[in-house]
Amino acid sequence: MGTNNLPRVVIAAGGNVDFSNQIKITGGNPGAGKVLTSDATGLASWQTPAAGGGTLDQAYDNGGPGNGRIITADSGAVFIQGTDGLQVTGNYGFGKPLGLSGPGSKMFYFPKKGLFEAVR
Q1: Whole-angstrom Cα distance, residue 37 to residue 15?
Q2: What average pLDDT does the chain have?
Q3: What is the DSSP letter of 33?
Q4: Span 97-116, pLDDT tens digits
Q5: CA atoms of 108 and 114, how far apart (whole Å)
Q6: Contact by Cβ (8 Å): 50, 35
Q7: Residue 46: exposed, middle, or buried by beta-carbon count in 10 A (0-12, 13-18, 19+)?
Q8: What's the rounded Cα separation, in Å, for the pair 106 and 92?
Q9: d(C-alpha 28, C-alpha 42), whole Å
Q10: What is the distance between the alpha carbons of residues 113 and 97, in angstroms, rounded to a whole number?
Q11: DSSP secondary-structure letter at 87?
Q12: Residues 80, 87: contact at Cβ < 8 Å?
């Protein structure tokens, strides 16, 4: 494509457009640590991510890493801190079967059966 001074370049492709090198986007407001995101119409803009990342709820709602359903704690323990404890809710008699196969100890709450249990 090269460098040009056209105010707008339209690339029409029958399939994917592949680049074998880096792409530099200078328009908008780029900066270190910013991410390029788009709105519902495909209009892209540079955004600064929220500090500290998102919550598990945000990941689940927005399709983030692991979709918020799985925490892999292979680099240390997972801590839940707070003075008010941990609350898990669900509806008795509803829900899919839990995938409890495989090695290792497990602790789970299963609302479908009103069950909280630790197993080896």
Answers
A1: 22
A2: 74
A3: T
A4: 777 777 877 877 777 777 78
A5: 11
A6: no
A7: middle
A8: 21
A9: 14
A10: 10
A11: -
A12: no
Closest CA to 26 of 17, 36, 18: 36
Residue 88 makes CB contacts below 8 A (sequence gap 6+) with 109, 111
Single-letter amino acid, residue 81: Q
Cα radius of gyration (the chain): 23
* pTM attached to this predicted model: 0.34
Three-state secondary structure call for residue 117: strand
At residue 115, the 3 state secondary structure works out as: strand
Instruction: Find residue 115's DSSP bridge partners.
Output: 110
Domain extents in the chain: 55-82
| C-beta separation of 95 from 115 below 8 A | no
| pLDDT tens digits, 50-78 | 765 556 666 656 655 545 566 666 777 66
| Secondary structure of residue 103 in the 3-state scheme | coil
**Interatomic CA distance for residues 81 and 5, integer angstroms:** 55
Token digits for 2?
Answer: 């090269």
